[in-house]
Amino acid sequence: MKNDLLLVEKYRPKKIEEIIGNEEAKATFVEWLKGKRKSKKAVLLYGPPGLGKTALVNAASKEFGFSVIEMNASDTRSEKAVNEIAKPATSYLALDTFTSESKGNVLFLDEVDGIAGNEDRGGVSAIIEIVEKAQVPVIMAANDPEIDKLRPLKKVCLLIRFHQIRLPLLISLLQKICLLEHVKADFEALEHIAQNSKGDVRSAINDLQSLSEENHVLTLQDTMALSSRNKDISQDETLRGFFSAKSVEEVSSLLFRSSVDYDEFIMSVSDNLPRRYTNPDELAAAYDFVSKADVFRGRIGTEYWHLLKYFFNALSEAAAVAPESYKPFELISPPIRIITLFWTKGKRTMLDGICGKIGAQCHVSHSKAKHDFVPFVKMIIQKQKSTDLISWLELTPEEVDFLVKMNRY
Amino acid sequence: MAVNEEGLMWVEKYRPKNLDEVVDLRDIVTSLKAFMKNPKIMPHLMFAGIPGTGKTTLALCIAHELFGPNWKNFTLELNASDERGIDTVRERIKDFSRYSRTGFGDAPFGLIILDECDQMTGPAQTALRRIMEIGSRTSRFILICNQSSKIIEPIQSRCAIFRFSRLDKQAMKEQLQCIAKKEKVKLVPEAAERIVDYSEGDLRHAINALQTASAYKEGEVDEKTVSLVIGEASPMQIQKMIRKALFGDFMEARKVMYEIMGSFGFSGSEIIRQVQREIFKMSDLTPEQKAELSNVIGEYDYRLTQGANSDIQLSALLAQFGKFGKAIGETY
Asked: How far apart are CA A258 and CA B30, in angstroms?
């Protein structure tokens, strides 16, 4: 899809009902805004980013006719700044009520947990003061209310917690957007996007947009390119520099300058090597150097860091096996290993449990059980209707089901 | 064990319970019987030999002979490759020896069977040596390993070492026939031959194959069924990975490799061992080609033990396969 508008903007909820999930939090907030705020003058919405806290404030205010005076606490947080902006908003705005249909103002302090550090001294107490003097509702939003600094705020605020959006809700939202944007997406692909976002609607929609920008079809395979969030950019840059370098010297100076994590970096090099070298001979030669680098890494352990130069040198050789064959290519990320281990964890745990049970009865190690027993036990269970073996091995129905359906290795 | 015997794995059902039931391994059994006459003189024992030749069975027989039906109360069975580290081994052995000072009644000592010792690292073995010294007044060790050369000298010198050689083909066939008879299954001689060939002297493997084959067809095991079972039990993914790599599809080969590691939890060295085995079974490679590949595998197997990350070493090996495949112009 091609969009002039960011999807997150285009599909930003305009009404309360358009915000997905967190029904209870929404209801509590609306109740409070509609006037049952006598006990507490202020409200603190808290929870991870991208769940609709800001959207709820804007949508609800609009629906109930309040004007929002927004102050982003992460920009201006000191006592003076808070006073300058927030105090006028709370004391003089009654004028508004005569001139418009507005029911008045609400003061919205977003990202109040941005208040931290020495330079912001007084920020929290200033907010408390505002809350106490305020004639209008004060709404605050925070990502992490557990920070000690915000504790005083809790006393004067109604606390409303936002939870991660459950996967099915998030997936169905993505499906809706795909439909409206004419993107044909596999369910698995959307599921992966949703999962990767950890329940963060905003990042999920952003990911959907970046993946479907040039494409009207989206498969699980496409979403594998999804970078896990909060990734260090310098790693990718170093990788690009690494693969496009013209000489060993260029690579080693790059590696020495870079601050990447060595272990992650060598994995990324390994992941991307086949994209860089499509000729089997070149690939084998390059991998031989990566393998040697890994051997040096093994020898370094946690102690012999003076060997690091050999690690770098071997790795640099891998980058410069055939400078003439370099063509730009798309980097693979995140690390294949981490993805695989993540997706297969359940299987592995189940298999380990089964092997433990076989090992206990047949006097063999887990690894022997896996090699010498599992394939046979699987076949016997499949062929024999008798459940004696199953009960002797103390296998649960889930384990039996797993064995029967398991792929051969 | 109050379990319906029909349901047992045959390897357990027909595992000899005492030394007299052991038909093979005459020399070893004779020496062990001598120890049994006066258990107090029994030294620590080390059983070394390839898998499935009766090492664990004899160790369990000794436990039976020494302690009778309640042998489990006086025996600590540990597997070095399962226990997280030498500290776990140490703790469990310490607890056991402490208990053994008061709890063994008539028994002269407690028995500690430590399987797959050669999986332990050098430092772990050094620690084990101390553990053996601490425990030796109240316990005896039976250490089981595939290669005694991987065990450090000080431990070897504290043990009477028994070497288990590959089981005789004829003896294996007799064993299989004997079990088949008791299970009222007709085992066709060609089928027995096929099982024995396949299992490469590993009786445990052979019996498992026999039991599985008998589950396929009521009352008879023929060569066809055996071939089917062996085919099903062979590591298909490993073969697929090797072929993809040789054919030059590195990306796909590596994907399979990660699947094997991820879904089945195999370690790098386990996979490399399987690769070695499968290469030698491949009929479309000449003996010279196999030898050459084996050299390559050997190099990376060694680097695996030295390196930090087995994924990288395995990937590098697959890349070598790609180069090799290109050189011999093989097309699969």
From this structure: 67
Q: How many CB atoms lie within 10 A of CB B237?
A: 20
- Distance between CA atoms of A331 and A272, rounded to whole angstroms? 6
Instruction: Provide the chain A residues 370-389 that lie in CB contact (below 8 A) with chain B.
Output: 370-373, 375-377, 379-380, 383-384, 386-389
- For residue A196, the enclosing domain spans 167-223
Amino acid identity, residue A376?
Answer: F
Distance of CA B51 to the CA centre of its chain: 4
Whole-angstrom Cα Rg for chain B: 22
What size, in residues, is chain B?
332
Among residues of chain B, what percentage have pLDDT more than 70? 93
pLDDT single digits (tens) A253-294? 788 777 777 888 899 999 999 999 999 999 999 999 999 999
The string of pLDDT tens digits covering residues A206-250 is: 888 877 777 778 887 777 766 554 444 467 788 888 998 888 888
pLDDT of residue A126: 66
Residues B14 and B139 occupy one common structural domain: yes
Q: Please tell me the distance from the alpha carbon of residue A192 to that of residue A194, in angstroms, as a whole number.
A: 5
For B81, the closest chain A residue by CA position comes to A365
Residue B214 and residue B195: Cα distance in Å, rounded? 12
Q: Which pLDDT tens digit goes with each residue over B152-195?
A: 888 888 889 999 988 889 989 999 999 999 999 999 999 999 99
CATH number of domain containing B196? 1.10.8.60
B216 close to A (CB below 8 A): yes
Using an 8 Å CB-CB cutoff, list chain B residues near A388.
Answer: 3-4, 6-8
Beta strands (DSSP E) in A111-247 are 138-142, 157-161, 184-185, 217-218
In this structure, how many other beta carbons lie within 10 angstroms of the beta carbon of residue B15? 20
DSSP character for A372?
Answer: I
Domain interval for residue B226:
169-233
Q: What is the pLDDT of residue A155?
A: 74
Do residues A112 and A204 both lie within one domain? no
Same domain, A242 and A281: yes
